[in-house]
Each structure stands twice: as structure tokens, then as C-alpha cells.
């Protein structure tokens, strides 16, 4: 959880006792003990209505999308019985603009895997596929792992997934 604090500094006082979070999920049915559950207001279904389910399944902390009139991060008053009970396993925190923070939160939780990737884009009229395949093969011969995404298939080292 401490990895998330650059984005959620206001949570510092509430998360001292939390152990490391196991995973982040937006689906309450997939929540397991020690997970971070993110409850968003959806277009068809409000994910916040599944907060009690996530609590029952052992979520360590729940980030709930705040209503528009809430400017700051705060413990969600609707779940005060969980938030005020020191023995409770879960804190429910309302976060304004949560959808805009999701990629940063996920990156922090999972150690920013995209920072370890090298990306090459190839443009032009002719030779893009050949160039991409040659670069990927050379990279693999040098001991690296590579993937080539195209309109026909996505190739990751030895695996191929047709579109």
C-alpha cells in the first residue's frame, strides 16, 4: 500500500497497519483476502453497491469513486462501522476523480511494469511488417523477449495469437 501513497497521500494515517496488498480488482466477485477493490460508478451498474460483498470476501482496502460534490479523499461515511472499528479488516475510502487515477494506482501497485518495456513504432508505406519481424528476431537472438503487433496477428516470442 505504501507504493500507492504518492497518489493518495491523505491515506497515510489509515494504512500504516495494512500489509502489502495482493492484487487490485474492479470485480467484487474476484476479491480475495488482502486485495484492493476499486468501486466505480459505472454507466449501467454502480460498482459501489458491491462494497459489502468485497468486505465479506476480505478486501484489505476499498477505493470508492466519490460523488462529484466531494473535493477531497475521505473515509466513506456510509461505511463508518468498518472504518471506525480498529479490528475491522477493511477501510473504505472515497476518492474524487478515481477513474483518472486508476492507471497510476495500478502502476504503483504492480511496480510500473510498463517502465521496463522498450517500444518501437514503425511507420511508412512499405516494409513495416518485414522491419518489425527482423527487429523482433534480432532481439530474440540477443536473448531478449519481444512481441510484434500487427493487423493479422500478435506474436510474442514463440506464441502467436490471430486476430
Could you tell me the number of beta strands?
8
* Integer tally of domains: 2
What string, H for helix and E for strand, traces the elements in order? EEHEEHEHHEEE
- The CATH fourth-level homologous superfamily of the largest domain: MurE/MurF, N-terminal domain
Q: Level of helix content?
A: 10-25%
Which strand order do you get reading across the main beta sheet? 1-2-3-5-4
Number of helices: 4
The helix/strand class is alpha/beta
Low-pLDDT sequence parts: 12-19
Account of the protein in words:
This protein has 163 residues and is of the alpha/beta class. The protein folds into two domains: 2-114, MurE/MurF, N-terminal domain (Udp-n-acetylmuramoylalanyl-d-glutamate--2,6- Diaminopimelate Ligase, Chain: A, domain 1), CATH 3.40.1390.10; 118-162, no CATH class. The chain is 22% helix and 18% strand. It is built from four helices and eight strands; from the N terminus they run E-E-H-E-E-H-E-H-H-E-E-E. It has a five-stranded mixed beta sheet with strand order 1-2-3-5-4. The chain is elongated, with a radius of gyration of 21 Å.
Amino acid at each position: 500500500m505504501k507504493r500507492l501513497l504518492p497518489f493518495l497521500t491523505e491515506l497515510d494515517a489509515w494504512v500504516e497497519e495494512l500489509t502489502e496488498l495482493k492484487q487490485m480488482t474492479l470485480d467484487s466477485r474476484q476479491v480475495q483476502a488482502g486485495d484492493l477493490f476499486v468501486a466505480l460508478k459505472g454507466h449501467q451498474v454502480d460498482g459501489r453497491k458491491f462494497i459489502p460483498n468485497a468486505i465479506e470476501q476480505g478486501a484489505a482496502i476499498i477505493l470508492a469513486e466519490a460523488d462529484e460534490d466531494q473535493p477531497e479523499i475521505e473515509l466513506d461515511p456510509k461505511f463508518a462501522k468498518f472504518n471506525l472499528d480498529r479490528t475491522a479488516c477493511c477501510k473504505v475510502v472515497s476518492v474524487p476523480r478515481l477513474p483518472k487515477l486508476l492507471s497510476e494506482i495500478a502502476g504503483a501497485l504492480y511496480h510500473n511494469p510498463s517502465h521496463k518495456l522498450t517500444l518501437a513504432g514503425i511507420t511508412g508505406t512499405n516494409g513495416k511488417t518485414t522491419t518489425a519481424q527482423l527487429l523482433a528476431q534480432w532481439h530474440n537472438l540477443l536473448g531478449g523477449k519481444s512481441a510484434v503487433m500487427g493487423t493479422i496477428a500478435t506474436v510474442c516470442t514463440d506464441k502467436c495469437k490471430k486476430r
